[in-house]
Write a sequence for this structure.
């Protein structure tokens, strides 16, 4: 074991015997009592020394026998300790890719705060490398989401879209000006490759069969299909149990969510039923809006708002892929120009919807 105090958390002494690791309340940890000599030993727990050397240095500093081991246990129980050799075989494989690790350095720091066990950062990064995600849409929102997911180390990011790139699709972090006129699918695939910190594992390097889709991100260029998703389009995902997340911009309003967990949370069909119940004219208007959007050349998609939506959606997607349920699970987050106040709306399953989410919701399944 080569223990290392997690470098992602800044350290400061609250007083002569108390150390605080971290600035922000979400992940900060206070440790005490800690005397001056023990504080000096903490500085040496940096991943370059094994336990034998740490014990010898602790003895040289006048600390009693067992102090080094006790300190390492205290740091580990507080979620403050990493191990330069931990994480399992996949993590070891990632350690042999130093350039990729350099690119992922900030992401590893973040993962170390979420996965608090030693080696959790590399274990999380290695798990991302074998995940397969599909992004539906390559406009100002979808292309940026795809680039962020690839850049964060998701190994397989597929982008589905038709037609050719138009000038209005270009966005910082997404498709560049040189993509205009190219097939959208090809341009987006190039963006994903350029954004990735390294190549995805080849078939012979993967453990087990070809991975199934872990998540579909629905980010259509036509924001109407994120605002009012089509239950028919989502039917296959519901049938196969494929989680899917909606994101887009429509008429100066950005939306992220809901993240749909088939059979457990409300789906597009539930949302449509709810809108019809609140407004009987909804189906008639929706047909007209969808027809109008097919004819409309350019929608209202503010670049700042689309970038914010893409970033939030990508962060929620990564949180889900890392094993957590983000705030968009069974909820929509919306912000409209010019005030941009993010508001949350809970999305409830409909008892009449064939997706069946209303039944487990009564039994305590998240909804």
């Amino acid at each position: 074991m080569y223990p290392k105090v997690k470098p992602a958390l800044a350290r400061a002494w609250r007083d002569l015997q108390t150390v605080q690791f971290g600035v922000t309340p979400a992940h900060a940890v206070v440790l005490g009592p800690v005397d001056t000599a023990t504080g000096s030993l903490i500085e040496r727990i940096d991943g370059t020394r094994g336990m034998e050397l740490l014990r010898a240095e602790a003895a040289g500093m006048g600390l009693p026998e067992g102090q080094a081991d006790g300190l390492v246990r205290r740091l580990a129980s507080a979620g403050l300790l990493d191990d330069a050799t931990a994480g399992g075989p996949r993590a070891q494989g990632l350690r042999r890719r130093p350039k990729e690790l350099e690119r992922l350095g900030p992401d590893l720091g973040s993962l170390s705060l979420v996965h608090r066990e030693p080696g959790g950062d590399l274990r999380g990064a290695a798990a991302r490398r074998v995940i397969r995600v599909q992004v539906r849409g390559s406009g100002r929102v979808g292309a940026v989401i795809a680039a962020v997911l690839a850049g964060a180390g998701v190994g397989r990011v597929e982008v589905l879209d038709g037609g050719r790139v138009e000038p209005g699709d270009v966005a910082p972090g997404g498709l560049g000006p040189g993509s205009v006129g190219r097939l959208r699918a090809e341009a987006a695939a190039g963006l994903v490759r350029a954004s990735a910190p390294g190549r995805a594992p080849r078939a012979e390097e993967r453990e087990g069969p070809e991975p199934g889709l872990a998540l579909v991100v629905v980010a259509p260029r036509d924001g109407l299909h994120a605002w009012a998703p089509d239950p028919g389009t989502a039917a296959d995902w519901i049938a196969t149990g494929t989680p899917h997340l909606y994101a887009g911009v429509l008429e100066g309003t950005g939306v992220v969510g809901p993240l749909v967990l088939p059979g457990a949370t409300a789906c597009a069909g539930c949302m449509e039923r709810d809108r019809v119940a609140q407004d009987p004219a909804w189906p008639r208007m929706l047909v007209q809006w969808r027809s109008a959007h097919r004819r409309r050349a350019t929608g209202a998609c503010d670049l700042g708002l689309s970038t914010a939506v893409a970033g939030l959606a990508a962060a929620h997607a990564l949180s889900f892929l890392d094993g957590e349920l983000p705030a968009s699970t069974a909820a929509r987050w919306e912000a409209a120009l010019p005030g941009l106040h993010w508001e949350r709306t809970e999305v409830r399953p409909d008892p009449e919807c064939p997706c069946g989410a209303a039944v487990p919701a009564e039994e305590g399944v998240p909804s």
User: Anything to note?
Assistant: Residues 361-365 have pLDDT under 50 and may be disordered. Residues 130-362 form a domain with the Rossmann fold fold (CATH 3.40.50.720). The first strand starts at residue 3 and ends at 5. Residues 73 and 137 are 48 Å apart (CA to CA).
